[in-house]
Write a structure and sequence with these properties.
Length: 145
């Protein structure tokens, strides 16, 4: 992974420090709640229609956040970390925030996927997010119909 540019690095540090401090006492569903505030609630017609569409939407989000994502079968490789310096120092906390953002975004989209886990530095130059197929929330609310 490559470090962020100096101007982006300072900006990223401010954002991530705030996010890290804000998210530190929050566990599980609290991270997803925080991610919901960062992601708009789409109209039903705008929700992903397939697993590929959901993975594509998540890829666009993480590309906008400067993670240089590359989707592949059931995973998204994050090839750049705008929070690399903090991740090296506070790895589990920073990575949990990123996983929570993925989980919250997919949940809010009522996507047929969930982010199962995030493997920090799983490959040379990349963290790997593992996705898995899940029933849509709207299907669960309707009794699985």
């Amino acid at each position: 992974m490559t470090p962020a540019s100096p101007s982006r690095s300072r900006h990223a540090r401010l954002i991530s420090t705030h996010s890290t401090v804000s998210a530190a006492p929050v566990a599980g569903s609290g991270r997803r709640s925080a991610a919901r505030r960062l992601w708009y609630r789409p109209r039903p017609a705008a929700r992903p229609t397939s697993e590929a569409d959901a993975a594509g939407r998540l890829t666009v989000l993480f590309d906008d956040l400067d993670f240089d994502p590359k989707p592949a079968d059931g995973v998204i490789r994050l090839r750049h970390c705008p929070f690399l310096e903090l991740a090296e120092e506070y790895g589990p906390l920073v990575c949990d925030v990123h996983l929570g953002l993925m989980q919250g975004a997919l949940e809010e989209l009522d996507a047929p996927l969930s982010a199962d886990r995030l493997e920090p530095f799983a490959e040379p130059g990349a963290c790997v997010a593992h996705l898995r197929r899940t029933p849509r929330l709207s299907s669960k609310a309707a009794g699985g119909r």
